[in-house]
Amino acid sequence: MRARALLRLLLPVLLVSAALAQDFTLPEVVMLPVEPVSLHPGESVPIRLSFRIKDGFHINSSKPIQQNLIPTSVKLSPPSDILVGKFTYPAGELMQLPFMPDEKLSVYSGVFQVSGLLKTTNAISPSTYRVRGVLRYQACTDRQCFPPRTTEFAFDVKVVRVKHPRRNPPQSPHAHS
Q: Which residues of the chain have pLDDT under 50?
């Protein structure tokens, strides 16, 4: 009896919660696979990191127009013998929202790319290294903004040995053709 009474009380709450959960989706930005990165000790190579923003959302660009908005940023934490150059972000798309008809926002939506440069020291040993990173962003819909979020990601960098051209040793003076 008590179980039925409790179920009668909780069933409406559970149904309303399930309906709300279907309408309430959180923003999500994921990193797309990185093209294989391979370089020699002491060499630098450009990298391109691509991110996909969940449909229905946009995020502030790296240079939002309003000072109080959180800019999108990428930070890498590479191993000690890998250095990271400055990142280049795309220009934001100007967007006007219904609740702010007098202001435009600089945003990214869909897929966007951040470009940078990786460089290795001459002392690095040939191997595969894991580079970890964080994307920080603030996402919004056309109705509301969400608190800033971070998305962690990682990719591999392969450092390969420098191949020196092989030269044939000089012929012995005693060799005859």
A: 5-23
